[in-house]
Amino acid sequence: MTEELLVPSRSLPVGPIGRRGVGWWGVGTLVASEAALFTYLLFAYFYLGATAGDGWVLEPRPHLAVALPNTLLLLASSLVAWWAERGVLRARRAQALIGFGMATLMGGAFALIQLHEWHTKPFSFGTSSYGSLYFLTTGLHEAHVVVGVLILAFIFLWTALDYFSPRRRLSVSAGVLYWHFVDAVWLFVFTTYYLTPYLGFGR
Amino acid sequence: MKAVQLRAPVVGPDSVAHQARLLQWWEAEGGLKGFFGSVDHKVIGIRYIVTAFVFLMLGGLEALVMRLQLAGPDRSLLTPQQYDQLFSTHGMTMIFLYASPVLSGFSNYLWPLMLGSRDMAFPRLNALGYWIYLASGIFLYTGFLTGNGPNDGWFNYVPYASRPYNPGLNEDFYSLGMVFLGIATTVGAANFIVTAFRTRAPGMSLDRLPILAWGTLTASFANLVVVPAVSLAFLMLWLDRQFGTQFFNTAGGGAPLLWQHLFWIFGHPWVYAIVLPAMGMVSDGLPVFCRRPLVGYSLVAISTVATMILGFGVWVHHMFATGLPGLGMSFFSAASIAITLPSAVAVFAWLATIRFGKPVITTAFLFFSSMILLFVIGGVSGFMTASVPVDWQLTDTYFVVAHLHYVLIGINVFPVVGAIYFWFPKMRGRMLDERLGRWNFWVMFIGFNLAFLPMHLTGLLGMPRRIYSYGPEMGWTTLNLITSLGSFVFASGVLLLLVNVIRSWSKGQPAGANPWDAPTLEWSVSSPPPVYNFAVIPTVASRHPLWEGRLSSPTCSSLQEGPLLDEGRESLGTSAVEASPDMILEVPQDSCAPAVLAAGVAGTFSGLILKSEPLVIVSAVVLGLALLWWLWPRRQLREREPA
């Protein structure tokens, strides 16, 4: 009988165990859709930059003094979140709490520094299509950072309430996946707006 | 107390006592909470279908008013401005509020039943998708009813849609409404993808999926990655209009063509997204009436996916007349011609199925098989415009209008009406009237061709689309009169469908579980199905579990005996490719969180159009709280350890 082949007598997990659960896949599809959104934003940048005349990039030599360390801060927060997730995985609650607390603060700091970075720009969103795109792209990213920080804060709270165990932790893993995405996509945004001008794009 | 984390599902036979136990977990609540909180895919699916049909009627009425205006030369029923809003709203309604949601409705209703599961992977997300769709539809129609409907065509080119040339709220309603609707499409697509890969019955490997599932799955992959393009384009347009950004303004270094690229990067894959599931309905429904399996199942499945992949590379064929470089256009032209190959595979598979089968002529068969003819006509006229020089001659004429109606009515409306005749008995437990069905079919078929076949000629004679009137000296009078007559005949055919559904709702012949003697899992349960769908999770051994005795299949499926899963609201999670049992899924209970969340989103968008900061803030708080309520880890779903 096929049935005996297909429904083994072995035990199956009841509900999400580890990353095994439909929720993990759900966040995966969310990330795919969001990644597409940023792809279109960067497509718009390269399309307008390639078809516009000289001087389209309003900042041919973007200041890296704040942006580069801030980028490193965001990437480091991803590492910290990963370390915190390992804490949940190994039932080390102190490690998890310290990790998620730090990641939340680091993400929050990135968001504040980014606000400051906006104020130092010599152009505004209405100056030209470059300005509009810069503020829309970094603005949408900032919105994702804020959502990510809230997620990290709630994971911190839920960890403090002792909701999770090495097995029951799908919310943690899904939230951390989203945070990794927010950080990874910034690398593309940063490279496009801050580094490609040095390589000669838009000049 | 330590909660159970691992369990071997009890396998056993179906029984009355077992069904009573299941009902304890699954029975729906009544009252307001039951209404706003339902997460049952069958309820949601029917809501989608009914709502989409209301929009189909509205869009149809708009078309009839336009046909009255165009029935003769120099008529003055409508002002040019009214005409602009009518044709734009008609396009928006049919393409965004009818064609895609109606397919989502059928797939929502049918998927878990076809796949042998008790619900979708994300039942609450399913409810959210519906509420957002409904709310965004009301939002867009609020614009129309207050004289602020879209008025630059459904693809809404800048600079027409830019504020200096279009100062009213029309384009703001359209822009925000489309971003709003995009949320529904995206969450729906995510749900279909995860459902397809994780909640099939054991044994239903990917090569045993019904073609409807292939079509919707493929369309969902496309929607997931292309909807952000149009949402972004509309967001940019709204910012340009209200906040002085320069995305599309040439004076500020922006580019109107950026709009066209972003719109069509979305728009063309979307066209396939609203026909592939409908083609799937034909691939699954037609063979039932030919009394044999579909010819070339694997080829049809592969060509479904291939159509979509090529479909990502053809968007520029909407932009041949915009002065792009010739070499680039040749590539897009070649891709647009190549895409006819996978479409032809499906056509020949259907024809072969009819040829090698023993057709039983029913109303559903008539709708499904006539779709093949309409598909070929619409496909060939599309193939013609894939050629750049031909496109230059035909673009923006009624030839294109004829083409797109053959595609959208021929490959969407006809299969959908066929699907209603085919699956209504499952949904309602009663048959639709076959005699009235014949009238329904022939009136629609004759009316449709009477309306749209002459339109090709109108286009070749040079009548531009979207003009509100024309002079008697142009020589378009007779053709337009025929089209107007045809459109009213077609509309009365749709009315017959409505009459049939209303009459059969309570007076139709009882259907029984499998009135058509069809082979797939949805026909193995009662009509209408019980709230938990399957008392025991079926185990599938072939593509046609209900035809196994007749086809020479060596294995047999198990439909009456299998995992009972009656210790909670449970269903079975299976592995992505082979569909072997992987986990026991906890299915969420009814919840009002999706409806509240949708209300928060609706409030936010209303605040944005009214420029009311308090409304935006209050709604955003409601939205956030609903989300938190939703995502808070629950014991029932075993998302957390019991304290």
Residue ranges of chain B: pLDDT <50 for 5 or more in a row? none
Largest interface: A-B, 58 and 73 residues
Enumerate the strands of the largest sheet of chain B in spatial order, edge to edge or round the barrel.
Answer: 2-3
What percent strand of chain A? under 5%
Overall helicity of chain B: 55-70%
Oligomer: heterodimer
Largest sheet of chain A: none
Rg calculated over all Cα atoms of chain A:
21 Å
CATH class of the domain at 348-527 in chain B: Mainly Alpha
Helix share of residues of chain A? over 70%
The main sheet of chain B comes to: 2 strands, antiparallel
Q: Using DSSP, what is the number of strands of chain A?
A: 1
Give Rg of chain B in angstroms.
25 Å
Cα-to-Cα separation, first versus last residue of chain B: 9 Å
CATH homologous superfamily placement of the domain at 348-527 in chain B:
Cytochrome c oxidase-like, subunit I domain
Count, helices of chain A = 6
Shape descriptor of chain A: elongated
- The N- to C-terminal Cα distance of chain A equals 70 Å
CATH architecture heading of the domain at 348-527 in chain B: Up-down Bundle
What report would you give on this structure?
The complex is a heterodimer of chains A (203) and B (643). With 203 residues, chain A is mainly alpha-helical. Chain A has helices spanning 2-6, 22-51, 67-89, 93-119, 129-160, 170-195; one strand at residues 12-13. Helices cover 70% and strands 1% of the residues of chain A. In chain A, helix 2 runs antiparallel to helix 5 and helix 3 runs antiparallel to helix 4. Chain A is elongated, with a radius of gyration of 21 Å. Chain B is mainly α and 643 residues long. Chain B has a domain at 348-527: Up-down Bundle (Cytochrome C Oxidase, Chain A). Helices cover 63% and strands 3% of the residues of chain B. In chain B, the strands form two sheets. Chain B has a two-stranded antiparallel sheet. The longest helix of chain B has 36 residues, at 80-115. Chain B is globular and about 75 Å long. Chains A and B meet through helix 1, strand 1, helix 2 and helix 5 of A and strand 1, helix 6, helix 7, helix 8 and strand 3 of B.
